[in-house]
Amino acid sequence: MGKVLLVSASPRRKGNTAQLIEECARIIAESGSEAEIISLAGMDIRSCLACGKCAKLGECKQDDGLNGIIAKIKEADGFIVGTPVYFGTARGDLMSALQRIGMVSKSTDGFLSRKVGGPIAVARRGGHTATIQELLMFYLINDMIVPGSYYWNMVFGRDAGEVWEDEEGVLVVRRFAENVAWLVDLIVARAAG
Question: Against a cut of 0.85, is the pTM above it?
Answer without folding.
Answer: yes
